[in-house]
Protein 1
Amino acid sequence: MQRHWLSLGCRRPGASDAHQGGTTVLTVSARGLDHVSLNRLLAEAAAAGERAVRVTEVLGHRYIGTGLGGELSLTLEGTPGEDLGAFMDGPTVRVLGNAQNAVGNTMNSGLIAIHGSAGDILGHSLRGGRIWVRGDVGYRVGIHTKAQPANGPAIVVGGAAGDFLGEYMAGGVLIVLGLTDQGRQRPVGNWLGTGMHGGTIYVRGSVPEHRLGKGAGREELTDADREELRRHLEPYCWEFCLDPDSLVSDSYTKLVPLTYRPYGRLYVSTVGEC
């Protein structure tokens, strides 16, 4: 293990080290370590008071950051495996590469910023915090995101999202920007917002009616929506060196739940029914 100076990407002036990216870090190589050993090492570093850790040569290691809390800043170089940041509560994780499935599974708080693309069920049952992806994502992203009265969960996807985005969504915000080649062709797949009963989905550009799932309906954007978009897109753009003003001012399709119990009659009979 070694200590180095790390400086990443575009950061807004005056940001703290957790967001600025310029700080001394403890550097660890994942080469030759299984996922159990790597995660034990990270937990020990966090318990010892380390504030910034950089892990190189990451290749499919699962459960990185699972259950970690506090203000740790974790930078991963390579491709982390399943369940990155599961149940995480506070740390900032940056992936300088792609990520596999189930990123941020049931995460409570913190930030996961992926500078590449990510797989399926990203943000599954996300309770809070933010997940940012510069590239594309797979299927069932944002499924079962939870409803929180304040500082609810938020996912921003820079490219395209697969089918069933926001399925059974109960709260939070999902934003799809369609900035990649795939995203420009088709930013979202089919069955968008199927069964959603809370939260809001914003898709930059237009979405054909046939892509909407049961339970999702359109609404016109308001000034409050523009402020909500700016609140999420400004820090996202600082991370990935993009222009927030042009993205915030662009046209979006806004999707909201049509009902808070889209499948209630499938599970509970009404009074008087046999």
Protein 2
Amino acid sequence: MRLLIVKLSSIGDVVQALSVLEPLRPLCSHLGWIVERPSLGLLEGHPLVERVHLFPKEELRAGLRGGGLLHAISNLRRELAGQRYDTVLDMQGLLKSALVVALSGARRKVGFAGSRELAYLALNERVPSGRLERHAVLKYLDLTRHLGAKVGRVSFPVWVRPEEEARVERLLAGGPPVIAVSPQTRWETKQWSAASFAALTRSLVAELGARVALCGAPADRPQLEAIAEQAGHPSGVLNLAGQLNLREFAHLCRLSRLVVSCDSGPMHLAAAVGAPVVAIFGPTAPWRTGPFGSTHRVVRRGLSCSPCFRKRCASRACLEGVSPQEVLEAARGLWEAPI
């Protein structure tokens, strides 16, 4: 089988979709994946994937605004046709992934029945997604079973280059054990306050004796600096915003005693590499998209309005009600657990 996996975004979704690689690999003579640029680093050079295609999101948008849309579509069709895929697996279930399915040239077009934006109309094999409340990873694995894969222990093969591992190890050399803290999210309703993260950071250093590595993208540096400043700039805090790519962050998580994060892509990446995670949840459902596995702790307020899945909220009570002390106690439980 020459298989194209379509999972374009977001980072957390792509990380969870890595769970299909090992079950599907024995079935494939050639395995490709198409992805958007923010998640590209998770797949470039991956030993289980022969070809990684970059979904031309910017070119398609530019084509819609100023012409050239047909040219961008034609280029994508030509690139996919050149790989002679006979099966395409749509794990995204949106209009943009349906476009890829239609352009792939594959005979078998597999995905979830009832996917959003009428994306299922592009499919000729529609797999029931099961109960809404099932975890996303379990649903992804249903797709692999449909293709004939045997699913054993669930794993997420995150590949890191040896030189990247060495760089992170040099960065963390010496000193107390590390707790990685990833404060930033894309939704404002998922974002725990800087003041709360600062109070937690201060306690992690003072009470647990940990070094805290504040992690984020280059654009997150001011927010992470504000957290460190409000925490009093304890000597055990490293602001690593913009210093690590996704693979390097994954290895940092492997080396950390635990990771604290809001509901975000970094949370899923930390869980994928086996780091114990304390996840702070507000408007979303951890039983659907929480850190996969049994070694993690989710801290949330069980309010009647949560989960609401809203990206805007006047009160944000579900998140503001989570105290730094609660998160500290969850972290303490993982910190003191046998290694």
Protein 3
Amino acid sequence: MEKIKLTYFNITRCGYYRFRDSALAFGGLSETLSDIKLWLNGKTLRQTKVFDPADGDSVFPVYISDLAIDAGTGDALLITWNETPTTAGGQVAAAAGDDPVGSVDVSLMDVPKGGIPGYPCFFLFIPSRSIVVTIRFDGQVHNGNPGLSRYIDDFLGKFSSHVVVVENDDGVRINGYVTVHGGEPQNVRPVYRSSQARVPGKLEWLIENRTQIRKLVRRDRLLAGVAPNYSRLQTIWNWFGITTPAVPHSGSVNFDFELDCSISEEQLDELVEFDALEHDKNKDIGFRMIGESGVIHWLSHALVKQEIDIDVKRTHAGLTSANDLLKVLSNHRASILSIVPVE
């Protein structure tokens, strides 16, 4: 048996929308999942990449390693493979964790020819409730939702069956989106958006007591190999008065800090939205209130999440069959849905 941690996200947009209109024009979650499954047919893992990150982008390339859809419920289990950074020579760097700061030894390991270094992430889609549930096995830090969101958004924009492409001297360009093949392009845009589901009441209490907030608390985990994070780590060292910091080029650094402040309603909304995009096991935002000594109200405590035990076979790299995992989770479907807030 393995314990898995589930975190719930509401899917607020998925498909094609007319400009300045929140109503779905065509597409939808179930259709998008079926479209992705059809598009995956016959492809290699490398061919499933739909975007290349820009310089400084915190989301690295994402691939799909498996996808299964239940014909009865429409539920789907999608497994992504999330690429991790390599050196300029195409090697993976590993720092000796027990070496003293300033004398850290780094080993470089070759990636097999054609290999894609990375880790898997698992997602359960329940279209009937417009939710996606991230699944983290024991020891897994990232839920992968930012990469998933970017993936589906780019798939809708570039590769779905609704995309119309035309050839020109430079190759191909997108000429719009149609409801059916051969139809006229519509004045629509592809959109996929999700937000973390929150327990009713907890966030509302924080909003109602916003004027009692006296400190903002931030917990974070920075990956040293990402350019923006490396600059942030240098800035943190500079705060200590060290002008030539020994900032690691790989690995991660956990830290937290507190800031005396008062929060406006708009700022609180921004913090909640930011936390929903950033949140994982090592990232959180909390608040200390007037008259409450030693108590931190973490935004993560308002998230809809649960833990369950399942029996599923995984490889040494942590992968499993999407079909097998979907079947196992179908036995827990009632429990999984029981905590989803009804809107």
